[in-house]
Design brief:
Layout lengths: L10 H18 L4 H11 L21 E5 H4 L7 H8 L3 E2 L16 E2 L7 E5 L2 E2 L29 E7 L4 H4 L6 E7 L6 E10 L6 E11 L4 E12 L28 E16 L2 E17 L12 H4 L10 E19 L2 E19 L13 E22 L8 E18 L2 H4 L16 E17 L4 E12 L3 E15 L2 E12 L3 H5 L2 E9 L2 E9 L5 H5 L8 E15 L2 E18 L3 E2 L4 H8 L7 E3 L1 E21 L5 E18 L4 H4 L8 H9 L4 E11 L2 E10 L2 E3 L8 E3 L2 E12 L3 E8 L35 E9 L1
Parallel strand pairs: 4-7, 22-26
Antiparallel strand pairs: 1-6, 2-3, 4-5, 6-7, 8-9, 8-35, 9-10, 10-11, 11-12, 12-13, 13-14, 14-15, 15-16, 16-17, 17-18, 18-19, 19-20, 20-23, 21-22, 23-24, 24-27, 25-26, 27-28, 28-29, 29-30, 30-33, 31-32, 33-34, 34-35
Length: 803
């Protein structure tokens, strides 16, 4: 399909780098032994994710684990963790929603095309708390409330291990698509500071980021590591001029704001450890962060044909653009003791995390209050907390018939979660409510909690010199929906030192989040009504409420998953490693947001809801509506080419292909079917299957010679579809190629200067067709599902200092 800017296809760069990679193995024969040993050591990183063994390397792992170092994390122009990971991992997708209320401020990322909340996030191996924001609009991850990855600053991270495999038996709920384990920087020695400045080609979106990390000694046997990061990111706007006569004096000008929001994150992370005696260490890590975000709702024009015109004109005679100004506050603390008792290694910890999201709606009006309406409103807040107590013990037991020791790990965990909705001021929800975002009502407010207890056992070891294996079982009991059991078996067989096969089979689960069980709000959304976009008062009801029950809602059950993966590892030379992993993930009773149940011309339902003092034009709730099957393949190939005069080129090819299918759709409750409504409509179902790219290819080259470094990354984002209930209104998006370039120079051994361009060829996704009427009369030209966003070319410079 057409793009805003047409440029030469970067496929030529892919071909050139691919030819270099193909020719690389013969060249390796002439490389110096010392360089080969260095490359081999870097490719055999010891991992801690998905294993309790002390010496499991990436090349020995029964499951695929990607290890991303701090250098790679800082290799792009972005300072957002989720954006960086999506560029480094082909299996991760992170579009940039706009005009999606709170989702503009807390954007979700997905792994392997599954829901964002089906990926578990750990920090130093400890479960991270979830965001309080529920993605309720028509974006990726609709209905999810996952971890806010962007609340974790790059300055604090030593490396990230991404386990691309089901791991619920090892870690519990949410680990269906995989596990992202963020390892913090350690030690008292050294430090770094960096300043980044960037701007988009259109002249907006100016960004300034300042980050730093340093360490301090705590006595003779301890250390404290501190990382800080602050950024100012100005909004972008890719809206087109408003052609509508209803825009009044603003007709023919840009009325919308459609792009990245204004964002002001400030974050502090600390990591520490003190040796108490020869057998016991105390450790703790904590964070506090605050991110202020200002995003825009849909522009309200000056003139309309309804009765609200008279209420609007005195306050905003030329129309107005409501602004959603939010503050997301994120805090956590983990502390514990670990040590050795006899032959046993043990770790006992306490973990508490909280995310609070507060929202103000400014530059707006409540029509029901007329000309006396305020123009700013406090809309309320959401708070999510998690508290854990955990005990792990492990030891290596010699077994006569095994070539290595059997690692036995046992554990117990208690977790308590709460979810709270705080009401906004009365004027924010009175009558029609604040335009842009009607506040949380007193009836919406409340605090809910649950707890769960779990026991687990892991066994792993080298059965023979060529065969290794692992078993894991886990039992959990939740206070709200009962018990669940998980299991996992994995094995790896090395046919030769250069070639091995590996595979896993697991049964897992994901518990319905408290947000999915209790989130409730009534607000104005843009919906398609009779093929035309319209603003509709929409109620989101918890499944246990009287309103949801009237509409056929049932109590939520846990999602049940079955994961199967088979992979091959090939290392023909010390400098060249390739892995190929096939996977299939079946998920039963998957939790999704129901269709937007439009109540126009449904007098029976409208009357029944009115009897409960509920007055909405559409309704929705969470439901276990579908069974899905995800099939795919991950390919990762890395090669290091050592050149003359100490120069080096690192080449990486990474590819993910992903296919989602719906195996079953739950029957629509009779109360809805009788009214011609559908519980899970075509759009709801197809968002799960075609809404994210079918595949993603990344080919990167990193060249270093002396004080100079250059990096090139070509990414191909595969096709995807933005579905509608009318198939004729679907929009299919063709694959898109994006090229990123950067170069840096090291000065006086401690300074590094970097200049880069992301999206060198200024590629934009195809524009939203006017036929679908989803572009608000041509003012919002790009889809929020575009995997690379729609901001265009980005220039940046960095200056860093290390000590």
């Amino acid at each position: 399909m057409s793009c805003k800017h047409q440029h030469a296809n970067p496929a030529r760069a892919v071909l050139i780098l691919g030819l270099i990679a193909a020719l690389a193995p013969p060249v390796a024969l002439a490389q110096d032994a010392q360089q080969q040993d260095q490359a081999a050591a870097e490719q055999q990183t010891v991992v801690v994710t998905g294993t309790r063994s002390l010496n499991r390397r990436t090349l020995d792992s029964e499951s695929p684990v990607d290890v991303i170092g701090s250098k790679e994390l800082l290799s792009t122009g972005s300072s957002e963790l989720a954006t960086v990971l999506s560029r480094l991992l082909p299996s991760m997708n992170f579009p940039r929603p706009t005009g999606a209320d709170a989702s503009d401020a807390v954007r979700p990322a997905q792994l392997r095309g599954l829901s964002p909340d089906q990926t578990l996030v750990l920090v130093n191996g400890k479960r991270r708390h979830a965001s309080s924001v529920v993605n309720v609009n028509g974006t990726l991850g609709r209905g999810s409330a996952p971890v806010d990855l962007n609340a974790i600053p790059l300055a604090a991270i030593e490396r990230i291990e991404v386990l691309r495999d089901g791991a619920a038996a090892q870690y519990g709920s949410d680990a269906i698509a995989g596990v992202v384990n963020i390892i913090l920087k350690r030690g008292a020695e050294g430090g770094e500071a960096e300043v980044t400045y960037g701007q988009f080609d259109e002249g907006d979106g100016e960004q300034v980021t300042v980050r730093g990390s340093t360490g301090f000694k705590l006595g003779d046997d301890g250390w404290l590591r501190v990382a800080v990061e602050a950024a100012d990111r100005n909004a972008t706007n890719r809206a087109f001029a408003d052609p509508r006569a209803s825009a009044g004096p603003r007709q023919g000008t840009i009325t919308q704001r459609y792009g990245d929001p204004d964002s002001r994150p400030r974050t502090l992370f600390v990591n520490s450890q003190v040796r108490i005696n020869d057998n016991v260490d105390w450790y703790a890590f904590a964070n506090y962060g605050e991110r202020k975000t200002s995003s825009a709702a849909t522009f309200r024009t000056a003139y309309t044909n309804d009765a609200r015109t008279a209420l609007r004109t005195p306050l905003y005679p030329e129309g107005f653009l409501p602004l959603l100004d939010s503050t997301s506050t994120d805090a956590s603390v983990v502390t514990g003791l670990r040590g050795v008792l006899g032959e046993w290694r043990w770790d006992a910890s306490l973990n508490h995390g909280r995310n609070r999201f507060e929202l103000d709606v400014n530059n707006t009006v409540n029509y029901s209050l007329g000309a006396a309406s305020p123009t700013s409103f406090y809309a309320g807040e959401l708070t999510s907390t998690q508290s854990l107590a955990n005990l792990d013990v492990a030891r290596d037991i010699p077994v006569s018939f095994m070539s290595g020791p059997l690692t036995v790990a046992l554990g117990a965990e208690y977790r308590r979660e709460t979810y709270e909705i705080g009401a906004g001021e009365a004027n924010s929800y009175f009558g029609s409510g604040a335009q842009g975002y009607s506040g949380f009502r007193q009836d919406d407010a409340g605090k809910n909690s649950r707890n769960n207890k779990s026991l687990y056992l892991n066994l792993e070891g080298d059965i023979t010199e060529k065969l290794s294996g692992a078993l894991a079982v886990r039992h959990e009991r939740y206070s709200d929906f009962g018990s669940t059991n998980s299991a996992k078996a994995s094995a790896r067989y090395a046919f030769t030192p250069q070639f091995a096969l590996r595979g896993t089979l697991s049964k897992g689960f994901r518990a319905p989040s408290l947000a999915q069980s209790f989130y409730t709000i009534t607000t104005t959304n843009t919906l398609l009504v009779g093929g035309t976009s319209a603003l509709v008062e929409t109620g989101t009801f918890p499944v246990g409420s009287a309103a949801a029950t009237l509409l056929g809602a049932q109590p939520l059950k846990a999602e049940k998953a079955r994961n199967l993966s088979i992979g091959a590892q090939w290392q023909p030379t010390r400098n060249w490693t390739t892995t190929v992993d096939l996977y299939r993930i079946d998920i039963d009773d998957r939790i999704v947001f129901s269709s937007n149940l439009q109540l126009a011309n449904k007098p029976d339902l409208v009357s029944a809801l009115a009897a409960q003092n509920v007055y909405v034009g559409a309704a929705r709730y969470f439901t276990n509506a579908v069974d899905t099957r995800t099939k795919g393949v991950d390919i990762v190939s890395t090669y290091r080419l050592n050149l003359a005069q100490g120069a080096r080129a690192d080449l990486t090819l990474a590819y993910n292909h992903n296919d989602n299918e719906v195996q079953r759709v739950a029957a629509t409750p009779a109360v809805l079917a009788q009214q011609g409504l559908v519980l899970a409509d075509r759009q709801t179902i197809n968002r799960l299957t075609v809404g994210s790219p079918k595949d993603k290819l990344s080919l990167s080259g990193d060249y270093t010679r002396g004080i100079w470094n250059a990096r090139a990354v070509v990414t191909r984002y595969g096709e995807f579809t933005v579905p509608q209930n009318d198939p004729a209104l679907d929009q299919n998006y063709d694959p898109q190629w994006v090229l990123d370039l950067a170069a840096s120079v090291r000065l006086a051994s401690q300074w590094r200067l970097t200049a880069g361009i992301d999206n060198v060829t200024n590629r934009y996704p195809a524009q939203v067709t006017s036929l679908s009427n989803l572009n608000v009369n041509g003012t919002q030209p790009y889809s929020v599902w575009a995997p690379n966003g729609f901001n265009g070319r980005y220039f940046y410079v960095k200056a860093g200092y290390t000590w």
